[in-house]
Amino acid sequence: MSLPPLRIGQYEIQYPIIQGGMGVGISWENLAGTVSKYGGLGVVSSVGTGYRHPNYIKLKDGRPIGSKYIHNREALQRIIRDAKEIAGGEKAVIGVNILYAITDYGRVVRDSIEAGANIIITGAGLPLRLPEYAPEPHVALVPIVSSARALRVICKHWKKKYNRLPDAVVVEGPKSGGHQGIPYEDCFKPEFQLENIVPEVIKERDKWGDFPVIAAGGIWDKNDIEFYLSLGAAGVQMGTRFVGTFECDAAPEFKRVIIESKKEDIKLIKSPVGYPARGIITQLIKDIERGTAPEVKCTSNCVVPCNHGEEAKKVGFCIADRLGDAYLGRVQTGLFFSGSNGYRIKRLVSVKDLMRELVEGIPSGQEIPEGEPVESGKQL
Ligand SMILES: Cc1cc2nc3c(=O)[nH]c(=O)nc-3n(C[C@H](O)[C@H](O)[C@H](O)COP(=O)(O)O)c2cc1C
């Protein structure tokens, strides 16, 4: 089966594949720009952008000071413009992922739109006020939900208050990398698994309109994509597989941690954001358990639910500093998010090859159609 295009608002994406936003620094200009260039929707992460362009910001002990510098306007705008440039210029379509839980959410939405973001994707909380910050009709609004109930609450509120509905909705199941939208125990229950929540979210969507439903969490190959399309989804969002690309903006050390991980190393951990998060059990997680992880200082004031480091102290680590360290390639103190499939990444491939694999169903670097040269992936 050839994969159909995906329409989100006024934008048509050639293939129904969204590269999920990944922070800190996993999906910036290079990954997002290249995914859009090869026919998917590339999504820039808006969190921790001060780490990308430290020359724009103020630091204390090597950390961005406060939300103005961690979720930095100039750095984010430069990333969005550079992503568009890589994707083919002004007309290219780029999404921006903005966690609802970050401090300065509304300001970051405005910063993104000013820099040319076409699609705003928001999870980590119900983005009830998103249409207020993004009233421009050409900017498509896409909430991420983990249940039909969450979609209902958003549609009801947006319709009543802003006379607006989502332009698409991402449904994320508990195999996904990073933060989950449901409590720890629910992540293991059958009724919260992706294959069971997608049909329910589609039923809820039908009550409101016909915007696309996009499935996310644990999707690996073309068979998985076809499975979710057969359930009625219009597309998929994938994160972990894109970490295993040359173009991914993560440090080489991050890619090595994921390539060397084993199935049993990928687990749900507690996070100061208030939701469980899926990541790789590394030295940091052992140090958190022993109480020997780096001290919580809250220099960056990154997310509202952490309450200036109060939650961080309870769970034993600062999320901004630890994700920042992963971006900087510090393996001992970094926090490495991954979906439950991370251990299946064995080597890096190019985004072009990965997109082709996903679209044509041919594993990258194995069966190469005659007459078409393919760059081979190399071992780190
Ligand atoms: C390293 C990593 C970081 C992530 N960071 C974010 C983020 O900042 N915001 C967000 O909404 N989702 C984030 N996610 C989730 C992805 O956008 C995507 O929805 C998810 O990874 C899909 O599941 P998969 O990894 O099994 O493909 C992250 C995922 C990974 C693997």
UniProtKB/TrEMBL annotation:
Record keywords, A-Z: Dioxygenase, Flavoprotein, FMN, Oxidoreductase
Record keyword Protein transport present: no
Classification via Pfam families: NMO (PF03060)
A molecular-function term among this protein's GO annotations: nitronate monooxygenase activity
UniProt xrefs under InterPro entries: Aldolase_TIM, NMO
Gene3D superfamilies hit by this protein: Aldolase class I
Protein name listed in UniProt: 2-nitropropane dioxygenase
Organism lineage: Bacteria, Pseudomonadati, Aquificota, Aquificia, Aquificales
